[in-house]
Amino acid sequence: MEQKKIGFIEVFSIGVGGMVGGGIFAVLGLTIDLAKGAAPIAFFIAGFIALVTAYSYVKLSLRYPSEGGSIEFIVQAFGNGLFSSIINNLLLISYVIMLALYAYAFGSYGSALIAGTDVVWIHKALAAGVILVFMLINLLGAFMTGRTEDVMVFIKLAILIVFAAVGTASIDMTHMAPQQWMPMPSVVTGGLIIFLAYEGFELIANTARDVKNPEKTLPWAYYSAVIFVIILYVWIAAVTVGNLTFAEAKTAQDYVLAVAAEPFFGKAGFIIIGIAALLSTASAINATLYGGGRTSYLVARYGELPSRFEKKFKNGYEGMIIIALLGVIFATSFDLDNISVAGSIGFLVVFSLVNVANFKLYRETGGNRFISGGGALLGISATAVLIGHNLIHSPRSLITSGIVIFAVSVFSLTYYSLKKKRLAPYIDKDLEKEEVLGSQKVN
């Protein structure tokens, strides 16, 4: 029986739900600290890079519809050798970092609701606990259904939109006056650090094979999802900056949205936003664990990760356990700056290469090389700026990134050499069948 195809609303929801996860709750305070009154501009800068990159995803998704998503695009452009193996493992570890970021945010807001402030041991216990709970739920096969996830997405969006709408009336515009801006390098860095808050739109790529009328649906879904989230993030940043002093935002950096709701909602606002953050980050943890487990299984199956990732444990995969445990280590061992920088660098590298992929495959995808080339330059430049700024002002925050990239490279090189493994020429076997049939018809 043929699987029912999904339409624009479902695909749009996947993109928005992937972006509006725990990221906005976790990193808004960090961006305000770096950009001050220009925080809304920082969010726009990151969103613009995401929007340009979405063009490459549209073209590649239409030409190579695959459950492998970004992994498939990398393989088609760069081959199935060591380089693609390293990049794909970098993508996988970036999802682990996202998992840690969501758990970190869950711990921050949970501690604030329980103790009124960020108590370290409560924070870490909640961060580790929420990952382990959802790991067990996934392994028992009792993961949330798509309908439940849709409800969660609706709830968190509704709360954020109400927060922004009501808070707009009490914005103090002097907080965003140009004299309150940090120097532009800090503003740009603030945007790049929170780039991971936009990464979720790439999940649309994994649905391309199941979309009705993809030539029309996919472009609309990609662009509208990214533009909607840019507007929402810029609006939320403006309301937060406009209702808090920079000192208040700094003090409550890890749970700043909850504090920003107090001036117009009172103590109830703190609680409502705190609960929304817990729901949102929990939902994102669940989805990331499930998706990460599937990804680790997928790449293992085609020779990228050790074969033990393939073994089933009850109704889940061992890979899910490993991903969860790595998430716990990251969430409890590194601070928010380190996690955010490492995650953003990982996704900026992957997205830059997806733009390069569309640039290389323009004859296949019908893509505009100017747009995809510009996206690649934006991503590469953004990565360089992020690394350079932190090298000067916060070198310690690069340690996590260095450890991650070094470990991924050594692991891939060692395993690739010892096992003589290669990725498959096509990650998605259905795509391979279509490509083979297509070439046979041509011949």
Key traits:
Amino acid/polyamine transporter I, two-stranded antiparallel sheet, mainly alpha, 443 residues
Describe the structure.
With 443 residues, the chain is mostly helical. The chain has a single domain (8-442), classed as Up-down Bundle (Amino acid/polyamine transporter I). Helices cover 75% and strands 1% of the residues. The protein is built from 19 helices and two strands. It has a two-stranded antiparallel sheet with strand order 1-2. A hairpin with a 2-residue loop joins β1 (312-313) and β2. It starts with 7 loop residues before the first helix and ends with a helix.
Helix/strand-derived category reads: mainly alpha
H-E order: HHHHHHHHHHHHHEEHHHHHH
Total individual domains: 1
Estimated radius of gyration: 21 Å
Distance between the termini: 31 Å
User: Helix share of residues?
Assistant: over 70%
Q: What's the helix count?
A: 19
Task: List low-confidence stretches.
Answer: 142-146, 304-309, 312-316
Major sheet: arrangement of strands:
1-2
Q: Say what the CATH topology is.
A: Amino acid/polyamine transporter I
CATH H-tier superfamily? Amino acid/polyamine transporter I
Mean pLDDT over all positions: 84
Largest sheet: 2 strands, antiparallel
